[in-house]
Write a structure and sequence with these properties.
Elements: H1 15-31, H2 38-45, H3 49-56, H4 59-85, H5 89-107, H6 113-120, H7 129-150, H8 155-175, H9 181-193
């Protein structure tokens, strides 16, 4: 399978690459992608810079792996919660907010990693850009699927409103604008879907 905008090149993870990715992910999330260099990643991971380049090839590829890993973990985290609530589309839509709140508390105190990455990577030619935008398109498609069952006549508008509530809450959470932004967005979603 070749590399495309929708299917960026990925690498096979060795134990050293996994350690490097874990270190890079923590550093990128805490400090920002541009602020973290390969010297720091290699030092934190306990691998040589040569090993880092041999495995990943470039810092851009480390960023691709970091964001793809976050996206895969988020999707698995969300899938567990959606499975737990069953087939009701209203409950499923609200479960997205509940999952986001739990994820934010455990893994994302500084806000959404995709939104944060997009603040640094807005160039569509960057190999990580499709992961960022793809994750958000996937979220919109998910909300659309629920909205088509709940409000078929206005599914697109409902899905977009749910997406705006969700993404706005993630940003407000990351900025610490006010307490429990995700719970407030969930309540607004509940009222929208009532």
């Amino acid at each position: 399978m070749g590399t495309t905008a929708q299917n960026p090149r990925r690498i096979t993870m060795t134990p050293a690459a996994r350690r490097a990715l874990t270190a890079a992910g923590r550093l990128f999330y805490e400090r920002g992608i541009h602020a973290v260099g390969v010297d720091l990643i290699s030092a934190e991971a306990g691998v040589t810079k040569k090993t880092l380049y041999d495995r990943f090839g470039s810092k851009e590829q480390i960023v691709v792996e970091y964001l793809a890993d976050r996206d895969e973990r988020w999707r698995a985290f969300l899938a567990e919660r959606l499975d737990a609530v069953g087939p009701d589309p209203r409950e499923s839509a609200l479960a997205v907010f509940d999952a986001s709140r739990a994820w934010a508390e455990e893994f994302s105190p500084r806000g959404c990693s995709m939104v944060n990455a997009h603040a640094e990577i807005s160039d569509a030619a960057h190999p990580a850009h499709p992961i960022i935008t793809g994750q958000k398109r996937w979220m919109l498609a998910l909300f659309t699927r629920f909205a088509e069952e709940i409000t078929p006549a206005t599914a697109d508008a409902t899905a977009r409103t749910l997406m705006l509530l969700h993404e706005g809450a993630l940003v407000a959470h990351g900025l610490g604008v006010f307490p429990d932004a995700i719970a407030q967005a969930r309540e607004q979603a509940r009222l929208l879907l009532a």
